[in-house]
Each structure stands twice: as structure tokens, then as C-alpha cells.
Amino acid sequence: MLYYSGFTRRIGEVDEGSTVTDFLPAERARGITIQSAAISFHWPPLVANQKQVPSNDGAVSLPRSATSHNINLIDTPGHADFTFEVLRSLRILDGAVCILDGVAGVEAQTEKVWKQANQYHIPRIIYVNKLDRDGAAFERTIKEIGTRLHSWPAICHIPWWEDGTAKFVGVGDAVHMRGMLWEEGGDGRTIKVQSLQDLEASSPKFAQELKKAREALVELLSEHDDDMVETFFDCNEDHLAIPAAEIIESLRRCTLKHPQKIVPVYAGASFRNIGVQPLLDAVVDLLPSPEERPDASITMGTLKGTLNDLVSGKMAVETVTPEAEAGKKKKTVAKATGSAVAKLGACSLAFKVVNDSKRGILVYVRVYSGTLTRNTVLFNTNLGVSERAQRLLKMYANDAVDVDEIPAGQIGVIPGLKFARTGDTLIAYNTGANPKYGPPAPFNSLQLRPIAVPPPVFFVSVEPNSLSEEKNVSENLSLLLREDPSLNVSLDAESGQTQLAGMGELHLEIARDRLINDLKAKASTGRIMIGYREAITSDSSPCAQEFDREIGGRRARAGCTASVSPFSPSIATAPPSEHATSIPLDSSNWLTIEHPTLFSDGEPVGDAPALPETLPLRAVIHALQTGTSAALARGPQHRFPMHSTAVTLTLDPASQIMSDTTPAALTGAARLAVAAALRDAATKASTALMEPVMHVTIAVNESDLGAVVHDISAARGGHVISLDADDASSSSSSSLAADDIASPDLPLIDPARIYAPPDPFGSSASSSAANEAARLGGDRQRQITARVPLREMVGYLKHLRSLTGGRGTFVMSVDRFERVAQQKVKGVLADISGGF
């Protein structure tokens, strides 16, 4: 595209790492796209002394592709691990070209991105690529568009195979009824166009198939566009007599309609430079301009509406002066006038943040209203801070050009912003002489629709090489998170590990390389340590311990008696006693402090000795609770924190509290007594090992349901709770994006009703492809809810993708701790010792 538009002088190759938009070293090394890249060009090429002409006003006499248009192209990754790059690009796109592999057909990630584009109402066209390769099956791919993407393919191009069975040499244009032949081995600029009459003379079989394609295209458009029906009758029901301009306009109406039921399909082989220029014409002719997109939704405090309604004054808002907001003057509320709205100079959305080694922090923005100008003050409505845009850039992949302004509908870059993050709304508002106050309410709460961040599913630990590097690693991780919000950093309170989570193994591998090689952080990544627990299985005898030590140069003494037992719910539901205090602890532990000679308010019973004035009952209970928690932090056998343990402490002021007893002494006595009771219980019966069990929600196709359920139940020791559960209250996936789990069933399309030109490999291949597509047509999405041990979920993403052909997705959260089966304890302990 860049070569034919005149932007570059050479054609880059992905396999060679020479493409303009794949400029990262990791992208060129792997031959894949990792991060989205933006670039602008004109199509048709803007020659010298030619002005860019806006699209015509709907007249069908002149196609839009006859005049030069500015195209903002965003190249997005295709790998499932980088789905967030696609998500944040979809959020600001006006239209999309979906590229399919003519050999592989509709792949798993294609289905996922297609559903995401449905949510954002993105009009799409499809380009079937790689038709020059062995095994390319255009017919099968067309059938899969209907059965897997649930859209009707409107075939605008059919492949032209030399002599009907040999290599791919060009395309047949069903819209203009012509054949386009590309020169073999050329750069694609030379195209030999043959009319239908020429084709009937030279390639009658191909001409006949082209007529079938035109008939199928007109019939399909007539089912979804009333204007095409009228045109069809005006042309005496002759499919071939309908002007190409009328078909283009009908395709455009169907493409821009929501929901989009018809998707135009084009054919080509980019490696052989075949089919790219007609695709560029289709982008201009069929995809919308910014003015044709639905108005951007906004929120202003409790108000909801659209940006155009606000700018045009249709949205009634009340303003509060900045001085009143700051509390310097009496608050006055008034209805916003036209002048107040007119002060809103621009509204934009930050959709990407990049740390460039030469230019610093670059914030990519899409302008939705007004014009961003250089040196303007931008107010971040998400963070409530103001920053000045000292420079504005127009990005051309890795190159940049300074510009004075970024108008509405365009994409630009603001370098040097310190606070802006992905999804923040940046507005330019004329506040007059006092810009520090920011815009008045409710303009200071104006927000565009944010960008949804999918939950992470893959985890590794990040450890600095030394304590002195800890601060530097933390700062670099924060920078990494600002660039890529789909990464998540958390600190495990038990192990002290810093855990980095992402969308997959490759995603975290790229993040690690970026952290260590680009940001020069001195750290390493490793495996996640799973936080196991320990639980006693028998009661202990009462264990009395006395604490007698010097603390701060003063002797401190105290006594305590403790017993432990496995926790049962009846202990928590027992009626309260006025001579006992019950306290729930972490990890389902329970503490009961019995004080038979004291009431719950600390007063003694009868002639029993009272507590010293320096030790009220509340302080004593707090000290005993602290000591108990300290003892429960280490189990007697495996040294893991205790779980489901009921501790009973007996407090006798007469024998356990002396004149030199302090709260610290009571804490020490409780810790010693509880630890002794745990050891006593462990000598009577071995403790049980407890492991974290995750609440997992998995979305798979019905054809893969059996394999995934068997894997969860048999191989991973999980427990399937339900299939297709509607109860969201018990599910951890309530915050999950709708496209990942439980997508609504889309209408099934009968592949037999889809026209597709036969592939040049014989009728058996074509029929088998159609039968396969028909089988997949009823492959609806199913949802599995299960509980699975966390150790079995480490690295599960890769296994799930292999089981489901890349189509399975899942989310999980900690549900509870459960006992490890006795036959698996030895393996778990061996795995733990190997992890340290």
C-alpha cells in the first residue's frame, strides 16, 4: 500500500523484517507484528499541484476512489497474545480491512477480533491473501466467512487461475465485469485489464464464472438493500446491465449498516504484488470517513450523551465557575450558554503510550472534536491534571514530522506528556486568565468511552538482581505498565515476589526483553511460587507456656494455655458467651479466648482477681491475637501458613498475669503456646497440605467441549461446576469483556446458500471443504465453570490453545483452599523444593 501510494520507494517483506510498520527489533527478528503502528498516506497518490478532494456528496456518477483521500493506516498484530493492541486500535478506528490467509482460512484469532469489531460497530471488508501458495482454497475460505464469522460474503473479486488449474495470475472483478492480469515477477504497477468481451474470447470458462459472481453479488445485495432491488428492476432484471457505480453504492450502504450482515470480499496475493490497488480503491469507496461514523458517546458526571449534542448545544448542562470549585467564591450554578460550550476547543482520546528512546514519552491521540493546536493546555479529565502540548507530531511508523495542529478525525502524537495514560480523555478548554483551575464543572468530568482492558491469564515472577536495583526495576515496570495496560504487576504478600501477568507466554517474553534489553533493568524472570497452606487433622492437648525474657532492659513475664483443633462451621455459629471472646482470623482460622473469671467488659467474677489497670481486657485480647497470628504463620510440618485451624486460649489472670506482665510478653506467650499446640497436634496425626483452588470460566466451541471437560476433570483434578451457567454472581468473570466469555449466539448461515467459485483442485476438495464448513456452522460457543487447583493452571493457556485450535479463552480468580489428595502430596512437595 505504501509503495503504490508513493510513500516508499521499495516494497518491504514481513519475512525479511523490512516492512515500514514492523520497526521494532523483536518484530524484525520474529517476522511478526507486536505493536500497532500508525502511518498516513494518500490514495489515489497525491501528485504535485493537486489538492486533496473530499468525497462526493453521494452522487454515483464519480466513484470516491477517483479523487485523492487521506488514509490513516494502523497495522495491528495478529497474534492472540497481543489482543490488547488490536482492542485499543479498534476503539479509535473508522473502518477495518480483515486479512485472511487463503491457505489457513478463518483462524481462531480472526474470530476473536471479528467479535470485538462487532462490539465497536466497525465496518469491515475482507481481503483473502496468499492465494499464490500451494493449498490455497478460496472457496473454503468463503464458506468459513459465513459459518465462522456469521456474515454473508459479497464476492467482489474471484481468483484468476492460469488455464483454470495452474498458478494464480490475477482477479476477476465482479463489480466492473473485467479481468485484471498482473505481470509475473513485476512490482505490481503494470496491470492488464480485459473487458468481459475479451475474456469471453480468450478465457470463456473464466468469463462464465465471472458472470455467476456478478449474479450472486446482485442477488445478495438485493436481499439486504431495497435500492438495489429498484435498480435491478430498472435494468429489466439484467444482472450484467446494472452500472458498477450503483453496485459500489449498494455495497457501501450494506457495509455501513449496523449490524453489518454483508461483508465485501477481495482476493489477492500480496507477496506476488497482486490485488493491492483494487483493495485500496475499495477502502476509499466502501469504508466510512470520520463524519460518517456514529457520534462519540460521552459522560459528564451523571449525564450521558454524545459529543455532537454537547458541541451543538442540544445537551443541557450546568456549569460551576472555577473559582467556586476552588472554594474562593460562593458556588453559583447556571445553565451552560453557547459561549461556555464554545470554549471547548478540542476533545481527544489517548489510545496509546510509547516510550521512545530518542523522543521520550509519545502519547498517540485520536481527535474527535475541534482541533488540537501546538502549545495548547490539555486537561486530563480522568486524572484531573493539566499539561501543555508543546509539540505535535504526525507519525509515519517510526518517523515523525512536526505539525502545528491535529484536526478532528485525525491521529497524531503529543510528546512529553508526563501523566497521560491509555484511555484518558484530553480536552482543550479556554479557561481565560486562570488555566490552573482547569475547565468548570461538569466539563472537567467530560470523558469519552474508555478502552476495555482484558484480564491477564499468564504469570511470571520478576526479581531484581540485588536490593539496590529494586527501585530501578519498580520504576521501569511502572513505565512498562503505562505503555501496555494489559500487563499487570502485583506483589505477593506471602512470598514477597513481584508478579508480572499478561496475555500469554509470548506477550511476557516480549515484555521481559523490553524490560531488560531496552529499559536496561537488572532483573530476571522466573516461575511463580504458589502459596500453599497447612491444616491440622487432629485435636491437641492443652499446652501451657510461659514467656520470661528481658525486653528493652526490663524483665517481662506472662503465661498462656492453648489448644488447637480443625475448624468447623459450628465453632463460628456457636452462641456468644459472656466469658469468652471469638475472633475470626485470616485463612479461615478462628480464635477463641476463654476468660472464665472475667466478664466480656473486663470486670472480675465474684472475688476473682481483676486485671491490672495498665492491662485492660481489650489490650490483653489484642496482644493474644497478635501472638496467635504469628504462630499460625508457620505450620509445624511443612512451614506453610496454617489454614482452617481453631485456636482456644485460656486466660487466667491469677496464674498468667504478673506484676511485670506487658502486652509484648502476652504476645510472646501466646505465640509459644499456640506453636506448642500445633506441634502436639502434628505428632498425633500428620498435617494436611492445602492448595489454592481457582474459579475458572472457560469459553470453547461446542466441538471442543468434551476434550476440555475431560482435561479439566481427569488430567488436572478439577471439578466442573456447570456448563453455560447464567448465574453471574458466583462467577469471577463479571468484569470480563463480553467478547471473551459467553458471547451471544450469532445467526447461523447455511454454507450451501453461499456462492463461491470452485477451487482448481477438483470437485471432491470443494465438496469436502463445504461439508467441513457446514459442520462448523453449528459450532456454537459453550461456557465451562470449574474449580481447578492453581498449580494446574500455571501455563494452562498454551495447553488450552492446543486443545481448541487456538479458539479457547479463560479467566480465573482465587476461590478457596482445598486439601491436596494424599497421593499427590509427594509430587507437590518435590515440585516446591525444585522451585527454590
Can you walk through the features of this model?
Residues 1-291 form the Tr-type G domain. This is Ribosome-releasing factor 2, mitochondrial. Keywords: GTP-binding, Hydrolase, Mitochondrion, Nucleotide-binding, Protein biosynthesis. With 836 residues, the chain is of the alpha+beta class. The protein has five domains: 25-54 and 65-292, 3-Layer(aba) Sandwich (Rossmann fold), CATH 3.40.50; 297-448, Translation factors (Elongation Factor Tu (Ef-tu), domain 3); 458-529, Alpha-Beta Plaits (2-Layer Sandwich), CATH 3.30.70; 537-686, Ribosomal Protein S5, domain 2 (2-Layer Sandwich), CATH 3.30.230.10; 690-745 and 780-835, Alpha-Beta Plaits. Helix content is 29%, strand content 28%. The chain is built from 23 helices and 38 strands. The strands form ten sheets. Strands 15, 16, 17, 18, 21, 22 and 23 form a seven-stranded antiparallel beta sheet that branches. Strands 29, 35, 36, 37 and 38 form a five-stranded antiparallel beta sheet that branches. Helix 4 packs parallel to helix 20 (763-777) and helix 16 (617-632) crosses helix 18. The protein is elongated.
